[in-house]
Please model this.
Amino acid sequence: MPTMIAEIHEVLTRIWEDLVARPEGPLSFRFILQPAMAVLLATRDGIKDARTGRSPYFWTVLWDPHKRRARLREGLAATARVIVLGLAMDAVYQLKALGTFHLLEAVIVALALAFVPYLLLRGPVERIARWRQAQAPPQSTR
Model:
């Protein structure tokens, strides 16, 4: 059992050190590109949520167990291209800088850079869009 704990500690230490080194290494532009794409997607989907009257995304994911799975699937589908791009870029980084590939590290980086910003921003964008809709004067129909 102690050797298993030592191995887990070694793996976690390697993951942490590798993750901390990434912003300084090759392909560091992905630390700007992936969150920027996530922001654009969250903005698009948050505005769509406001127009259709849907509840804020993250709030629903946290507090509505009946809608949680569907909304998480929706968010993952919206960010899938960015996540896959992030996985590919991290694979290239790992092969170039580390000489090996660790899938778990690539998944952590891709989710942290793409899905987490999307998750955190979609709801606030929806609230701002809903507030702006309420402030806008009604348009006349002819």
